[in-house]
Amino acid sequence: MTPRDRWEFCNDLVFCTNLARHFFTTMNLFEQTGSYVLLMSRVLRRPNRHSLFFKELVNEIQKVGFDSMGIVAIISVFMGMVVTIQTAYNIDSPLIPLSMVGFTARQSVILEFSPTIISLILAGKVGSSIASEIGTMRVTEQIDALEVMGINSANFLILPKVVAAVLFNPVLIIFSIGLSLLGGYFVALFTSLYTPGDYVTGLRFAFEGFTLFYALIKTVVFAFLITSVSAYQGYKIRGGALEVGRSSTTAVVHSSILIILFNLILTQLLLT
Amino acid sequence: MISAKHITKQFAGRSVLDDISLDFEPGYTNLIIGQSGSGKTVLMKCLVGLLEVDKGEIYYNNRLFSRMNAEERRPLRQELGMLFQGGALFDSMNVTQNVMFPLNMYTRWSRSEKLKRVQFCLDRVNLSHAGLLMPSELSGGMVKRVAIARAIALNPRYLFCDEPNSGLDPQTATLIDNLILEITREYNITTVINTHDMNSVLQIGDRVNFIYQGKLWWQGTKTNIMEPDNAELEQFLFSTELTRRLKK
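Above: the input entities. Below: the structure tokens describing the complete assembly.
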């Protein structure tokens, strides 16, 4: 075998290995997707007992929603401040009125910052909590105990979380939008970059209700993704405590990637 | 009565249960013993439907459980209680809520009726005072007793216990064994117990089934187990210094 033949053989070998790796990665992706769809088909069913479902739903709204308000508030106010300062800093031309700061901040916050950034933050906070909670229940046989009792454990554990997030995340995002815009107003009050009057004029300029609708549609989809993907990661755990930690990290990574992907898809579908 | 007929279960081509046929009678404690990895837990999971058998049938009083779908199994599952190795109490609920959980799922009783039943079950396991404690505040023995209380809340006809006294001191283990035996006799329950604790075998082993490498190797009672007629069981029984001295 000549050196050239050897070189070509090695190249072929690397190509085949890469091909096999991609094949198995793709198969794993299909397997995961199939397994996620099967789980969701068990989750999205009529609950065994409606009274218990509503009790759990209220608990989950507390955990998924109200407990996240603090972090959402802090991030939103500072995000609004930074967006307006950066916009004002970039407006150099005397031909552009300073009210454009308010307009730009409003559009940025409603269209992108609040729904996407806050959903990414929630994917970290709520997603990891859901994955570790359900994962711990799996490794300590609590899910088996539910199954032995004849309860659809997927429906009982996951549906209240999904419904709570889908119902309450839009409230969180509206709350976030309000606080972000308030943050911009604080900047106007305490700096000389632009006046509160300019800012309010910009906020009220050419407002389209559809942008808010678009933000809320995104939020609902993101809420479903965060809770269902994280719950899936926790539910499928086999093993011990180490797996719980790993699934929690995977839940955050996967939900974040899906949020970014669906952000693009929804933007393409709704805004073009 | 529970009947398992020609049960076979494989994982990734490796046979874990190989053609096992067993009957579990009501009013008796039916023990499944064997080394770790012999297939005891898999057999129990197959019996309660947490795993599906590859071949064979499982009957609950002539009802073919292994061919039922989830909906068909639901009424039968109300007759079934299970005590898991770690207790499997719900962390977010206190003791009362844990015991009340099956009642919430399956009965239309008023809250006072449910509380009365919960108190009865907790009294039965000598934990009358523990209703407001959370699972994290309980000792190992208390966790098992609460799990027993939860398992008997719906008056089950079948009780499954997966290593009920693992991780417990000998005194508490004996307490749990006696409790299971009393409940079995009192309510004429078909009780199936997975264990590798020889104390339990000698104390409550009405019927003893020895599983070895996924096969049913020996059947007997606590009275004739000390004179085993096969080498594998003898090796299993007398593997500790204590049992060897007892034999002498």
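Note for the figure: The interface with chain A takes residues 48-50, 70, 73-78, 80, 82, 84-86, 88-91, 101-102, 104-105, 160 of chain B (CB under 8 Å).
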